[in-house]
Design a protein that fits this description.
4 helices; 29% helix; alpha+beta; Glutaredoxin
Length: 167
């Protein structure tokens, strides 16, 4: 089983489970924050999820308070904010660290698999995105400035590959 599926995560409700729950799906893993200039990206993330969730695509949002404390609320605050302001229906998770000594193991893995600017591993800001194929392979990393809509073609390609491979 690919390494991605060995990690455990805790959803925003406090339920712990294995990433193997998402085996066979195309994933976009994003570190998010409610008080960031990039927070409006939630709109495009939700649109992508609405468009492709029935085809096997999921957005996984991991709140992080490491960048100027832009996610300082509780999990309940985060959930309410996302629901009320953006109508988020894709999975939200418990707040995690994406850098430093307490980096969540999932993010340790993602950063090793897809390096950032100039080959660095550290996450530079909120709304860094990792695209993962149906087999659990990290395909590409996108910085905060990359809007979710700009990733749509890459998502479509990964979804299309699956359709072609089952024929």
């Amino acid at each position: 089983m690919p390494a991605l599926y060995n990690f455990r995560v805790i959803d925003i409700e406090g339920v712990s489970f294995s990433m193997s729950k998402y085996k066979g799906e195309v994933l976009l893993v994003v570190n998010v924050a409610s008080e960031c200039a990039f927070t409006p990206q939630y709109n495009e993330l939700q649109k992508l999820y609405n468009s492709y969730s029935k085809k096997g695509f999921t957005v996984l949002a991991f709140p992080c308070n490491q960048f100027r404390e832009q996610e300082s609320g509780t999990e309940q605050d985060i959930q309410n904010f996302c629901s009320v302001n953006y109508g988020i229906t894709f999975p939200l998770f418990k707040k995690i660290d994406v850098n430093g000594k307490k980096t969540h193991p999932l993010y340790q893995f993602l950063k090793k698999e897809a390096k950032g600017f100039l080959g660095t591993e550290s996450i530079k800001w909120n709304f860094t995105k990792f695209l993962i194929d149906r087999d659990g392979n990290v395909i590409k990393r996108y910085g905060s400035m990359t809007k979710p809509k700009e990733i749509e073609e890459d998502i479509q390609e990964l979804l299309k590959e699956f359709v072609v491979s089952i024929e």
